[in-house]
Q: What sequence folds into this?
């Protein structure tokens, strides 16, 4: 029962992140960690929300990690690297989330951008409330 509600929460969070990546919302999701894309023109296909590390939650540690990566023509992420981090404990979950995320594949006639994409994950103990622009 608990597993099903957790999965439902992750599905809702992924849907919210798709809206965030499309530029509709300012804040990220309503869960403990959030993601914000910077300069990504590619449409996310599947976005994974990183799990809040148990040790960090227990020790009441909050932080932020910026991960930069390339997106292949097929929509997979590669050359993933941490650009900035406030605490190392959040780096592995952020990298795993980016590695598992996918983007819409490019058509054969489209030109690939040489710009790296970056995503910032914010790990907070208080839920983040998503706001919409009116």
A:
């Amino acid at each position: 029962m608990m597993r099903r509600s957790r999965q439902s929460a992750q599905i809702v969070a992924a849907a919210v992140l798709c809206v965030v990546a499309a530029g509709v919302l300012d804040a990220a999701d309503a869960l403990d960690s959030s993601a914000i894309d910077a300069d990504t023109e590619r449409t996310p296909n599947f976005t994974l929300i990183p799990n809040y590390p148990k040790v960090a939650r227990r020790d009441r540690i909050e932080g932020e990690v910026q991960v930069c990566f390339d997106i292949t023509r097929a929509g997979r992420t590669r050359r993933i690297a941490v650009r900035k981090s406030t605490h190392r404990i959040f780096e592995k979950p952020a990298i795993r989330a980016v590695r598992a995320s996918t983007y819409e594949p490019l058509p054969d006639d489209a030109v690939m951008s040489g710009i790296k994409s970056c995503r910032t994950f914010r790990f907070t103990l208080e839920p983040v409330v998503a706001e919409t622009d009116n």
